[in-house]
Recover the amino acids of this structure.
């Protein structure tokens, strides 16, 4: 299981991951060899996939980022059979990636993720307008930052190329003019947008990145709040 934020991937090694089949001693190996024709080995693989899905469901319950599934076709078919309709797959990458580096995985997943994000852009403006009509909307970095820090961020929508420095004053993060990295000081946050993204995810919210200029009427960043 890999966790992606931007172009970086880090292994998710908790909550049941990584899932590894139970080791087989020589006696068990002999029994499996004899039972292979009757599907014994297949059952062992199926149980491993059940363990994967169970651990994945725990992750998805608190993290709503899109799920990309990578693997050979027959393994993806087993995953779909076990997962059923409760696990939504945003995209797929066909092929064997056992032992692949994080950069290789990130590159392989990028086309599937880009296609998913293009589809999300189609409906995101309607979602924001619906949230505005029921007063669960915030736009602009200052307003969004305040609500996100309160744990109220359900769905953050932000332009991919949006960066903004900020200064922390009396516990509050105040966005300021200028380019990231220019301001210096202990209270300076190089990128307040990155802070907002990470905070939303920490509280179990969803983040959708859209093309630059897509949120021109929302000051480049907008939020659907929980209440």
């Amino acid at each position: 299981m890999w966790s992606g934020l931007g172009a970086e991937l880090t292994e998710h090694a908790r909550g049941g991951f990584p899932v590894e089949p139970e080791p087989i001693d020589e006696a068990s190996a002999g029994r499996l060899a004899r039972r292979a024709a009757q599907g014994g080995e297949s059952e062992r693989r199926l149980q491993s996939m059940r363990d994967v899905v169970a651990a994945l469901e725990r992750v998805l319950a608190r993290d709503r980022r899109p799920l990309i599934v990578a693997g050979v076709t027959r393994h993806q078919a087993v995953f779909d059979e076990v997962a059923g309709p409760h696990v939504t797959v945003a995209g797929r990458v066909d092929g064997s990636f056992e032992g692949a580096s994080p950069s290789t995985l990130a590159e392989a997943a990028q086309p599937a993720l880009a296609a998913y994000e293009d589809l999300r852009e189609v409906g995101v403006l309607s979602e924001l307008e619906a949230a505005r009509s029921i007063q669960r909307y915030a736009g602009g970095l200052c307003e969004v930052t305040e609500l996100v820090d309160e744990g109220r961020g359900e769905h953050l929508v932000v332009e991919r190329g949006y960066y903004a420095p900020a200064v922390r004053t009396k516990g509050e993060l105040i966005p300021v003019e200028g380019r990231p990295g220019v301001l210096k000081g202990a209270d300076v946050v190089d990128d307040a947008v990155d802070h907002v993204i990470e905070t939303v995810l920490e509280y179990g919210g969803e983040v959708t990145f859209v093309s630059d200029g897509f949120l021109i009427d929302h000051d480049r960043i907008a939020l659907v709040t929980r209440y």
User: Anything to note?
Assistant: The first helix runs from residue 26 to 35. Helices lie at 26-35, 40-60, 73-83, 102-133, 141-149, 192-202.
